[in-house]
Write the structure tokens for this entry.
Amino acid sequence: MHEMALVEGVLGIALKAASENGMQKINAIRIRMGAYCGVVPAILREYFSIAADGTPAQGAELRLECLPAVMRCRACGWNGELAPEQYRCPLCESPDLQMESGREFFVESIEAE
Ligand SMILES: [Zn+2]
């Protein structure tokens, strides 16, 4: 239930931000997620619609922005962005990579009124 815990976190942040700013309704939540954070967007949206039901975030749109993973090659020292399906160093083709970033998952901003 990885997504459910994330949804509860996202919802908590959005509802807190809305109430602190005197907002009545949350229209959209912008989320940035790393390519390797393991979140399935369809499941995230489904859980969100269930969790947000009856709250000011009901019906809010989740805008997911995917961040590329940044890897470092332990063999040759290369680092840069790499898509999940190409898990190999583009310079020396070593699979011995270290992830510098790519597992992020956080609320970037919310739109509310
Ligand atoms: Zn390399």
In short: The chain has a mean pLDDT of 93. The pocket of zinc ion is lined by residues 73, 75-76, 78, 89, 91-92, 94 (CB under 6 Å). The longest helix spans residues 2-20.
